[in-house]
Amino acid sequence: MRATVGDKLVQHGRIVGQHDKIGEIVEVMGTNGNPPYRVRFQDGHEGVCSPGPDTEIRHRELEQPIGQ
Questions:
Q1: Residues 58, 8 contacting (CB under 8 angstroms)
Q2: Which of 39, 45, 52, 66 is the most exposed place for a label (fewest CB within 10 A)?
Q3: How do residues 8-35 score in pLDDT, each as one tens digit?
Q4: 36 prior amide bond cis, ω within 30
Q5: What does the domain layout of the chain look like in residue ranges?
Q6: Residue 23: how many CB atoms within 10 A of its CB?
């Protein structure tokens, strides 16, 4: 898993009814884009994450602007 600053980290809910948790990667602490990452989540919480199998990276250059 590789990421850059500005990419989105999505932690999928593991139980029925649990929503995905989405945050922006604000620092890549590993080498060559590898974890751990410092992530700022939508609720303002910031923490260090080493993503597991229930997590995906959405690269900012691949995201489509709304309406396009």
A1: yes
A2: 66
A3: 999 998 888 888 999 999 999 999 999 9
A4: yes
A5: 8-60
A6: 21
> Residues for the chain: how many in total?
68
C-alpha gyration radius of the chain: 12
Instruction: Provide CB contacts within 8 A for 58, sequence distance 6+.
Output: 7, 8, 9, 10
pTM for this one? Answer: 0.80
For 22, 52, 56, 65, the CA distances from 16, given in Å and listed in that order, are 17, 19, 18, 29
Amino acid at site 43: D
Strand partners for 11: 21, 55
